[in-house]
């Protein structure tokens, strides 16, 4: 590996980009809302710098390269067709048609006596649906299962989502680090999730469990819809609320923050899609088992969007784009407050995701 001097303000080196893409490939990544993929049209997405096409074929989601084997036209411009009892994705350019496994079913230009060559086939990718999202893995076998989100199907919880129109200009690893980082709360979210005159970090417990990095700590924060049941008459904005946080990081790209409040549980779930090293599409979902009136959802939605708007410019400002390996000493984590971030990055390096700058 080339360890030549590379400035943090520069675009990542070729080594860093290659390491990030290769290191992230063996994991499940969310790429699209399930409802955005209909039964009649394919959809193009980008994952780790690769163009992919998604299609529902014979009742299952298929993921293929978004490039026809013929003359490289995008298959996402095509349509779903039936060939007997098999559905295929037909290229808009010359009609080549592929099944969900990437096998080329039909080349209209071939004479009847010639069979479709195997070289016309496309490599398929693993694709599945879970938690209202379509997930894709680019490797031959996923390294870990899709991380858990037990509140998703639990009727005791009221859920809402936060839609983001554009990808965040950061890496997925930076995005997870920023969501895991609790010591920024008094500064970026002063008066909402902390106070800048009370910046002392909590006492973290951090450990690994299966494919998760788990962080647990206690915190005192101002009363608000993310920390308390504000529909109660005995709670006023600004009251001090004592909480227990348990953060579950599904390595390397999903985080589930569970807040145990005096009135119930509030959950923030983020699944990140690494469009590439400098663009991340975020899929946010929130769940609460208190203050369950549907009419109250708008208040929670507005606060979620506001807190996100505070985080976004800070995270997008961080350089280098990718997490720098510890050996570079570009960043200076401070113990004990940064322990969760150190442990996350340490595991990311072990997984071969953080390799260079």
Set out the fold topology.
Blueprint: H1 14-24, E1 29-33, E2 43-47, E3 50-57, E4 60-65, E5 79-83, E6 86-90, E7 97-98, E8 104-106, E9 126-130, E10 133-137, E11 158-162, H2 172-180, H3 185-188, E12 205-209, E13 212-222, E14 240-250, E15 254-261, E16 264-276, E17 279-288, H4 297-317, H5 339-350
Antiparallel strand pairs: 1-10, 2-3, 3-4, 5-6, 6-7, 7-8, 9-10, 11-17, 12-13, 13-14, 14-15, 15-16, 16-17
Give a quick precis of the structure.
This protein is an alpha+beta fold and 357 residues long.
Task: Write out key terms for the chains shown.
alpha+beta, Naphthalene 1,2-dioxygenase Alpha Subunit, Chain A, domain 1, 5 helices, seven-stranded antiparallel beta sheet, 357 residues, 2 domains, 31% strand, Rieske Iron-sulfur Protein
Question: What does this protein look like?
Answer:
With 357 residues, the protein is of the alpha+beta class. It folds into two domains: 33-137, Rieske [2Fe-2S] iron-sulphur domain (Rieske Iron-sulfur Protein); 158-350, Alpha-Beta Complex (Naphthalene 1,2-dioxygenase Alpha Subunit, Chain A, domain 1), CATH 3.90.380.10. The chain is 16% helix and 31% strand. It has five helices and 17 strands. The strands form four sheets. The protein has a seven-stranded antiparallel beta sheet, covered by helices on one side. Strands 5-6-7-8 form a four-stranded antiparallel beta sheet, with no helix packed on it. Strand 7 (97-98) and strand 8 (104-106) form a beta hairpin. The longest helix is centred in the last third of the chain and has 21 residues, at 297-317. It is globular. The N and C termini lie close together (11 Å). 37% of the residues are buried.
């Amino acid at each position: 590996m080339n360890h030549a001097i590379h400035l943090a303000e520069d675009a990542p080196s070729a080594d860093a980009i290659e390491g990030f893409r290769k290191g992230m490939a063996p994991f499940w990544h969310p790429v699209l809302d399930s409802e955005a993929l209909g039964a009649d049209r394919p959809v193009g997405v980008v994952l780790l710098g690769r163009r992919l096409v998604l299609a529902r074929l014979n009742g299952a989601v298929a993921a293929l390269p978004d490039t026809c084997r013929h003359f490289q036209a995008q298959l996402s411009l095509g349509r779903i067709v039936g060939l007997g009892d098999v559905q295929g994705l037909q290229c808009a350019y010359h009609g080549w048609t592929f099944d969900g496994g990437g096998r080329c079913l039909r080349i209209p230009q071939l004479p009847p006596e010639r069979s479709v060559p195997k070289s016309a086939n496309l490599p398929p990718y693993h694709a599945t649906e879970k938690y209202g999202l379509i997930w894709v893995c680019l490797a031959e076998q996923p390294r870990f299962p899709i991380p858990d989100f037990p509140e998703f199907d639990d009727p005791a919880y009221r859920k809402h989502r936060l839609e983001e129109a554009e990808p965040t200009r950061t890496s997925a690893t930076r995005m997870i680090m920023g969501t895991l980082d609790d010591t920024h709360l008094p500064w970026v979210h002063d008066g909402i999730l902390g106070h800048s005159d009370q910046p002392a970090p909590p006492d973290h417990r951090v450990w690994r469990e299966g494919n998760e990095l788990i962080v647990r700590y206690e915190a005192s924060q101002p009363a608000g819809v993310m920390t308390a049941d504000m529909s109660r008459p005995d709670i006023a904005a600004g009251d001090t609320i004592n909480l227990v946080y348990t953060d579950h990081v599904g390595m390397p790209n999903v985080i589930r923050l569970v807040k145990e409040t005096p009135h119930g549980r509030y959950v923030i779930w983020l699944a990140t899609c690494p469009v590439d090293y400098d663009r991340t599409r975020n899929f946010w979902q929130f769940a609460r088992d208190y203050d369950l009136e549907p009419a109250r959802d708008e208040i929670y939605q507005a606060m979620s969007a506001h807190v996100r708007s505070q985080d976004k410019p800070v995270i997008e400002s961080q350089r280098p784009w990718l997490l720098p390996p510890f050996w570079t000493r570009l960043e200076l984590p401070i113990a004990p407050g940064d322990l969760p971030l150190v442990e996350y990055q340490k595991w990311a390096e072990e997984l071969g995701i953080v390799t260079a700058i």
